[in-house]
Amino acid sequence: MAAEENPGVDVDEYGLAPDETLCGCCYDTVKRAALVASPCPHNPEAYAGMPIGMYHCPSCGVMVLAGSAHPTVCLECAEKLRANLSLDKGKTGT
Ligand SMILES: [Zn+2]
Ligand SMILES: [Zn+2]
After folding, report:
1. 76: exposed, middle or buried (C-beta count within 10 Å: 0-12, 13-18, 19+)?
2. Is position 34 within any domain?
3. Geometric angle at alpha carbon 28, from 33 and 38, rounded to 5°
């Protein structure tokens, strides 16, 4: 295999540059600076210590470790989530 490392370019196991990371929703590679907090109002943090392991968010569908916050998402996903969440609200009336 290619044993030659590229010195100076520090990539992690996903082959990402240090200033890149994965969107917690679509798993696209994005710049860290471009990620925003998930607009989802659910709180997987509240499930810390519960024996459920993974928390499957009923609102945005993301899977996170129970007790940890929603992953940060790219702007596109944030937009989509926001749109979905407002549709949900529309059903129950404002
Ligand atoms: Zn995304
Ligand atoms: Zn959520």
Report:
1. middle
2. yes
3. 60
H/E segment holding residue 77: helix 75-92
Can you give the pLDDT at residue 48?
Answer: 87
pTM of the model: 0.69
- Give the residues across from 21 on adjacent strands: 30
- Between the CA of 70 and the centroid of ligand 2 the distance, in Å, is 7
| Number of domains observed in the structure of the chain | 1
Output the CA 52–ligand 1 centroid distance in Å: 25
pLDDT of 16: 83
- pLDDT tens readout for residues 2-19: 455 555 556 666 678 889
In this structure, is residue 9 part of a structural domain? no
